[in-house]
Amino acid sequence: MTNHQQTYESPLGPITITATRRGISSLYFKPPEQADCPNEHTSMCAQQLDAYFQGQQTSFDVPLDVNGTAFQKQVWQALQDIPYGQVASYRDIAIAIGNPKAMRAVGAANGKNPVSIVVPCHRVIGADGSLTGYAGGLSRKQHLLQLEAKAMFNHHH
């Protein structure tokens, strides 16, 4: 049961963050459907998103409370292991979860990721390097990858 929600105005448009008492349950690029009712998880997430969009934060440490199948959760966990500023293919993730033939299923689970950005499904690209589908839209995916590449560059120079 999701009882808390907060709207975050990102450079890519409004993001609705929802949370239970245990952690963040979803983060979607969409305007809010109801008035904000934040809790400590949503406000912590909003602060970390600020730092992320300023190129200062490379990973998130908000607790998650997501609904999904065991397989989906395995995929979402593997997504969190893709380093900031890096990309992986569906195949890489299928191999990471010990199921190299499950590329299609990985793609489907990736598309169902309920927590954008924090669980970085934008870092998954096609094996040929193409930006494949992204629930938030390809231009957002490109923007997020560029933001990370730029921040990495600035940290190293």
Automatic annotation (TrEMBL):
Pfam families: DNA_binding_1, Methyltransf_1N. Its EC number is 2.1.1.63. The active site is at residue 121. It catalyses: a 6-O-methyl-2'-deoxyguanosine in DNA + L-cysteinyl-[protein] = S-methyl-L-cysteinyl-[protein] + a 2'-deoxyguanosine in DNA; a 4-O-methyl-thymidine in DNA + L-cysteinyl-[protein] = a thymidine in DNA + S-methyl-L-cysteinyl-[protein]. GO terms for molecular function: methylated-DNA-[protein]-cysteine S-methyltransferase activity. It is found in: Cytoplasm. The keyword Transcription does not apply. CDD domains: ATase (cd06445). Residues 70-149 form the Methylated-DNA-[protein]-cysteine S-methyltransferase DNA binding domain. Its main location: cytoplasm. It is an enzyme of class 2 (transferase). Residues 6-65 form the Methylguanine DNA methyltransferase ribonuclease-like domain. GO terms for biological process: methylation. HAMAP family: OGT. Involved in the cellular defense against the biological effects of O6-methylguanine (O6-MeG) and O4-methylthymine (O4-MeT) in DNA. Repairs the methylated nucleobase in DNA by stoichiometrically transferring the methyl group to a cysteine residue in the enzyme. This is a suicide reaction: the enzyme is irreversibly inactivated. Belongs to the MGMT family. This is Methylated-DNA--protein-cysteine methyltransferase. It comes from Marinicella sediminis.
